[in-house]
Structure formats: C-alpha cells, structure tokens
Design brief:
Oligomer: single chain
Structural class: mainly alpha
Number of strands: 0
Helix content: over 70%
Distance between the termini: 36 Å
Length: about 270
C-alpha cells in the first residue's frame, strides 16, 4: 500500500529539507554571480568591498556586449519560429500519418538530444566550412534549430496526441475545410504545447555556447561566446553583469510563459 503525503508525518519534514537543500544548491551560485556584478572591485571578489552599478553601465556602453546580445536575441527569435514550424509539421506527420518507418523517423528526430554536443559541433563546423556557412547568421540559425527541434517536436507531439481528433472531424462535418479545422480548432487546442515549444527553442538558442563557439567568427558572436572569451582573457565584474542579464531574461521569459499559460487555461 502506497503511503500518501498526508500520512507521512515526520517524513514530510525530511522531504522538505532535501528539497530546500537541492534548491539552494542550484540557486546559490546564481545569487553569487548577481552579487559579484554589483561589487566595486575590478576583480571578481566575494564579498564585494562595496556596491556599484558601473559594471552594468560598462556593459551597455561597450559595443561588443550590445552587439553580442542583439545577435543572440535575433538568432534565438528566428530559431524559435523555425523550430515551432518544423515541430508542427513533423508532429502532424507522426501523429496523423500512417506510413512505414514512422517509429524509426520519430526516434531519428530525437537524435540531437542524445548526441554529444561536442561531436555535433565538430561535425556541423566541418560541414559548414565546406558549404560556406561557417560564421554566418544562417549557419547559426540552422545549427541551433537542429538542437532546438527535438524539444519543440516533443512538446507539440504530446499536446497533439492528447487532442481529441473527433472535435476536428466534427468541424469538418459542419462545413469547415480540413485546413480551416486545423487552424481554428486544432491549433488553439494545442496552444500550450506550441507555447512550450517556442519557449524551449528560444532558451536553447539563447543560452547555447558549445556550438556557438565553433560557429562564431570575429564579426558574428553570440553573448555566451563573448562571455566565454572574456573569462579566458579577463575576470572583471562586467562578465558577472552580462551573466546576470542572461539569467534575468531567461527567468523573465519563464515567468511570462507561466502567467500566459495560466491565463490560457482559465
């Protein structure tokens, strides 16, 4: 007989303590980075001797940081759109289609999730050098889309599998075309899966660094690449400020997605 949560007694305290320790283990390093970004010392010293915002001012005043952040955002937006569109197409094909090798194709779509990212980075770097896409915007988009696609595919496929297709069929019987039924019935019904796909795709591209290092050029670098390069050359609190802004945008998107999802389910 399974022990319910209400009957655990003192075990609940132990579970809460373990949960709290895990949360602290994950959150404290992020809080340390945030504190270092406000330190007055020109080096990464904790605790900071005093507090200042000059490192954020330096971040927003240096073109290399702004250009890198803008590039990261532009690439992430394009990757988000392309991953969702590809994920929608692939999900409808897998869920609705009946053809030989469907299970094998579905497994193949998951390959970028299990392939070591360094192996993928080297392979796509060598390929893009041969076809002239190394260090280009479109090269970044393609590489990041390959990484983000499985997450978009899983989110949309799970939502589509839970959707009752008889509702779509009823709309077709009432006079709607198959395309109209999909656009007006199916897509709104799986909007939470599409939202999750968009969020995951954006964040994967926004935070990705390994592939970006291989794809970067002197004139095209994402924010994680610039942070990585700065860590190898200098240890100033500007790096902590950039990292804090990177995390802040990620948290803001997660909170926005949570609020938006709650509003959709009302």
């Amino acid at each position: 007989m399974l022990l319910s949560y209400d009957r655990m007694g003192s075990l609940k305290v132990f579970l809460w303590a373990i949960t709290l320790l895990i949360c602290l283990f994950l959150i404290v390093p992020i809080l340390f980075i945030g504190a270092l970004s406000f330190g007055s010392s020109p080096w990464l010293i904790f605790p900071p001797p005093s507090w200042t915002i000059k490192w954020y001012q330096q971040f927003f005043s240096e073109p290399r940081w702004i250009n890198a952040a803008t590039t990261s955002f532009q690439i992430a937006v394009v990757v988000m759109v392309s991953s969702v569109l590809l994920g929608l197409s692939a999900s409808f094909s897998i869920v609705r289609g009946t053809f030989p090798g469907k299970f094998l194709l579905r497994t193949l779509f998951m390959t970028p999730m299990i392939l070591p990212v360094v192996v993928f980075s080297v392979a796509i770097y060598m390929l893009f050098l041969r076809i002239g896409l190394g260090g280009t915007f479109i090269g970044f988009v393609i590489a990041h889309t390959i990484l983000a696609f499985p997450f978009a595919f899983i989110s949309i496929t799970n939502s589509l599998e839970r959707f009752d297709k008889s509702i779509e069929d009823a709309a077709i019987l009432c006079g709607a075309s198959p395309i109209q039924a999909v656009i007006k019935i199916t897509l709104p019904s799986i909007r939470l899966g599409i939202l999750s796909a968009a969020l995951f795709s954006f964040l994967i591209s926004w935070d990705e660094v390994v592939v970006a290092i291989f794809m970067a050029s002197p004139t095209l670098q994402t924010l994680p690449v610039v942070i990585w390069g700065a860590l190898r050359q200098e240890l100033t609190p500007t790096i902590a400020a950039a990292s804090s802004l990177l995390v802040l945008l990620t948290l803001a998107l997660i909170v926005f997605a949570g609020v938006f999802r709650k509003s959709l389910t009302r």
